């Protein structure tokens, strides 16, 4: 009996020990499983973070304490000419040697950033370095500022051009005012001076009006797709202004092939065409021919064309004609009364109406300016088609 009792006691003790080890094993297994789940969650979050940085338009580079590239995204590769796999753990200073960047890398004001040219010479970059963690690592961010610098330069040029364009007539006005105040003039001289002053005042007024038009175009709402303007009305307005400006000095022909309506803002569409017609009248010598034509295409699109047999435009100037205040001949433009903003206004109007401004010219043989519009901006005027 004693032996049997001892055996039973030993079996119970062994089972208790076995059960304890099983519990420990299960606990360890659960802990390992939970840890693996947490690690997978962390790995997933890391992959998501790296994927997010990968699609960032800004360059991202992780730099270790030894100034080696630990990781970079595709944008950084494009900015600096890195190969993110080949250049892994390469020293940053072996790949970026611009003096301004090296001074910044060794400097003490990382928040200021530094500007320097892209490796491929196609623009400029803004670069920031930020320390993070306790291991001396740094995060390098880069931004392509080529368009920003170009816009800043355009703003500076715009202010300089506006100042110049206003200063010239203002100087003339001031000079004649001083003359009228200090000299005794006969009626004929006084009237001549007053006429010149009126011309210069009108020139400044025209410049201000065009600047206001540009401001409205750039800041205004998009043209509607449900407000229709008859191309015939646009042609009629352009024809009236052309005859008034030409005063019988040119052969003017206006015609329309295929009646249609354009979805958009009437004043803007009229402004675009009258600007082109006005330029044709101003720059075509007396006796020249100017033809203004509307054509509807079978694909549903349409275009205005303004053709003249004037002096034409040298090929080297064509690409820059729509720049604000760009002139081939400043003295000639002032004689004809242009502000240098007309074609810029036309380009803005076309862009807002999803159209294009196309320019063709041969020096000595004349020019053709086309205003094209896509099918979804046009509607055939069935009533006029049937009546014609």
Protein described:
- The chain is α+β, with helices and mostly antiparallel strands.
- The chain is built from 12 helices and 13 strands.
- The protein has helices at 2-54, 74-80, 92-95, 99-106, 146-182, 187-219, 231-246, 266-283, 315-318, 330-336, 342-352, 382-387; strands at 59-63, 69-72, 114-117, 124-132, 137-144, 228-230, 251-257, 260-263, 289-296, 302-308, 356-362, 366-373, 378-380.
- The strands form 3 sheets. Strands 2-1-5-4-3 form a 5-stranded antiparallel β-sheet. Strands 7-9-10-12-11 form a 5-stranded mixed β-sheet. Strands 6-8-13 form a 3-stranded antiparallel β-sheet.
- β3 (114-117) and β4 form a beta hairpin.
- α5 runs antiparallel to α6 (187-219) and α7 (231-246) runs parallel beside α8.
- The longest helix is centred in the first third of the chain and has 53 residues, at 2-54.
- The protein is elongated and about 135 Å long.
- The relative contact order is 0.07.
Query: What value does the Rg take, in angstroms?
Result: 37 Å
Give the oligomeric state. Answer: single chain
In total, the number of strands is 13
Distance between the termini: 127 Å
What form results from the Cα inertia axes?
elongated
- Report helical residue fraction: 40-55%
**Main sheet?**
5 strands, antiparallel
Mean pLDDT: 84
Q: List the helices and strands in order.
A: HEEHHHEEEHHEHEEHEEHHHEEEH
Low-confidence stretches: none
Properties at a glance:
elongated, 13 strands, 53% helix, alpha+beta, five-stranded antiparallel beta sheet
């Amino acid at each position: 009996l004693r032996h049997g009792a001892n055996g039973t006691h030993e079996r119970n003790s062994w089972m208790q020990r076995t059960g304890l080890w099983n519990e420990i094993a299960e606990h360890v297994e659960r802990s390992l499983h939970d840890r693996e789940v947490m690690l997978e969650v962390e790995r997933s979050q890391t992959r998501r973070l790296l994927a997010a940085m990968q699609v960032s338009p800004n360059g991202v580079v992780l730099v270790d304490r030894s100034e080696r590239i630990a990781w970079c995204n595709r944008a950084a590769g494009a900015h600096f000419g890195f190969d993110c796999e080949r250049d892994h753990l390469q020293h940053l200073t072996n790949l970026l040697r611009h003096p301004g960047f090296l001074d910044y890398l060794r400097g003490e004001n990382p928040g200021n950033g530094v500007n320097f040219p892209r490796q491929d010479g196609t623009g400029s970059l803004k670069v920031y370095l930020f320390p993070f963690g306790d291991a001396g690592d740094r995060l390098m961010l880069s931004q392509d500022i080529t368009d920003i610098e170009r816009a800043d330069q355009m703003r500076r040029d715009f202010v300089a051009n506006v100042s110049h364009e206003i200063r010239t007539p203002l100087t003339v006005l001031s000079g004649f005012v001083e003359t009228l105040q200090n000299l005794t003039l006969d009626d004929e001289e006084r009237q001549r001076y007053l006429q010149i002053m009126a011309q210069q005042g009108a020139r400044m007024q025209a410049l201000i009006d065009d600047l206001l038009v540009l401001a409205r175009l750039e800041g205004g709402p998009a043209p509607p797709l449900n407000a229709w303007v008859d191309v015939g009305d646009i042609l009629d307005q352009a024809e009236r202004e052309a005859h008034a400006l030409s005063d019988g000095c040119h052969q003017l022909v206006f015609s329309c092939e295929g009646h249609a309506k354009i979805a958009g803002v009437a004043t803007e569409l009229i402004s675009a065409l009258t600007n082109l017609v006005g330029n044709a009248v101003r720059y075509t010598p007396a006796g020249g021919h100017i033809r203004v034509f509307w054509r509807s295409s079978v694909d549903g699109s349409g275009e205005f064309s303004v053709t003249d047999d004037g002096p034409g435009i040298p090929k080297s100037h064509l690409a820059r004609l729509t720049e604000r205040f760009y002139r081939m001949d400043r003295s000639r433009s002032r004689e004809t009364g242009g502000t240098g903003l007309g074609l810029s206004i036309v380009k803005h109007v076309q862009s807002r109406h999803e159209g294009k401004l196309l320019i063709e010219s041969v020096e000595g043989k004349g020019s053709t300016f086309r205003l094209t519009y896509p099918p979804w901006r046009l509607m055939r005027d069935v009533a006029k088609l049937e009546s014609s």
